[in-house]
Amino acid sequence: MGRFPFPAAFCRWARMYCGGTWGDxxxxxxxxxxxxxSLTSEERSARIAARRQRSxxxxxxxRGASLNVAMTLLLTLGLACAAATITESRFNTDVARYYIxxxxxxxxxxAILFLNLFCVTLDRWPWQKxxxxxxxxxxxxxxxxxxxxxxxxxxxxxxxxxxxxxxxxGRVALNQNxxxxxxxxxxxxxEHPFSTLVDLPDASRPHLISVPEAPANHPLTxxxxxxxxxxxxxxxxxxxAQGGPGLLLRFRNGATGQEMPLVLLRESEAGRKRSFxxxxxxxxxxxxxxxxxxxxxxxxxxxxxxxxAPLRYRLLRGERVEKEGTLLSGxxxxxxxxxxxxxxxxxxxxxxxxxxxAPTIAATAEANSGIRxxxxxxxxxxxxxxxxxxxxxxxxxxxxxxxxxxxxGFGLQTKPLPFAVExxxxxxxxxxxxxxxxxxxxxxxxxDLRGTTSKATAHMNYPATYPAGFWLSALGLNYKFSQANWDxxxxxxxxxxxxxxxxxxxxxxxxxxIVFGIASLxxxxxxxx
Length: 529
Hints:
The protein is of the alpha+beta class and 529 residues long. It has helices at 8-17, 41-54, 56-64, 67-90, 93-101, 104-123, 132-154, 269-272, 470-474, 504-523, and strands spanning 156-163, 169-182, 189-193, 207-210, 220-253, 259-265, 273-276, 280-284, 299-304, 312-317, 320-326, 333-337, 340-359, 368-377, 380-381, 386-389, 392-396, 406-427, 441-447, 453-458, 464-466, 479-487, 490-500. It has four domains: 8-154 and 507-523, no CATH class; 156-171 and 415-499, no CATH class; 174-226 and 376-411, no CATH class; 231-359, no CATH class. The model is unreliable at 1-7 and 13-31 (pLDDT under 50).
């Protein structure tokens, strides 16, 4: 174990600076380093004992280096990591990160471990040559922990959507939702983190946020009592003396739980005939005529009457009438369309359609997550409850000043970049003889603050880096752009993942120190007789 075939150049360096005969002897690498003491073991032990007696600082250092402290820390952190692994497998990474990895107790234990490692190295000062592999390994762990802390505090993982030919983008969206409230006096914006992963609000456990810049004698509070993963425009039927006849139908799917209201208005062609997810149609007709021939028959629900007379229905598939009868209010009618059924909720002789934002189970392209908010004056509600979709804002009535409503927004937190990015082109080459994508190629143009431009290309598994340069990469000062998502129907659009980690060099240096320290522990040992 004490001999290792080092290169000749390294052996010459070792003989020059360390003395001895590296390569054909067993001399330690650390023979003549300046921070290695020349004291004997007895002199060193006496110095350590003396400083414990006269210095409070060194007494705390020696207590912090206790093996019992180290074992307690490692055992606790090991159990926490095991619990995090189980949580991640049962739920997801975000839940484990929220409850364990970013828990103040877990971070506190890591900080104590950091101090314990530092105390362990100081406890052995002045160092003898046999201590150096041990010290290097421990300082490698300290450097690794420091790099992780720097990356967690100042680094981030974000996303950016770009459109070919669009305006260069200078902001990224973080994976963190926020609630933004406009101040009542200055109009400034105030951001409040809002987690959509755990501890979601409901009517029994609302989240309360004080409205900024409200008078002390009228403390206004924003109440968040609902969160929906899918918001959309929901149709309803409202009386209107100027409108024509209208029907409100509600479609439900017992197998999937999907639900969709549908409004029909007789006075307009678009209001009489509606598409049902593009797979079927609903038609409010003036009479039941003979079905027309269709090469590709479309399931159709025809309705007749409803306001002046009972509502009759007819289910068609091409020229074939599959079912007909009377549709009674409140009675579900099975349609034979993959477990869908329809119910007549209301029929008005004079009506109009109203659209409001509300939770919906039906997945549509316009669906979006959102929160339900209301304004309180003390404990008294002073505004109606409104849904705010992600990426939008709503004005709530201000009981203190009707001319200046309280503006509330909800969406992903954004972060500015010190440069702007433009999508030059987005290409998706296919496998030969097939349609499976073989690569995703985003050609990007970067604009810095001085107006200088440069190009870079992001391939699948090969991110684009900006600013370019070895030292910028080595020091963790650049940004990496990787392919995250794409739209098969729109190749002028792409979504990129943006990664910035200033703690990257410390992590690498720490890892190398750990490897070097452990290797030195074996390679510099004096061989046993």
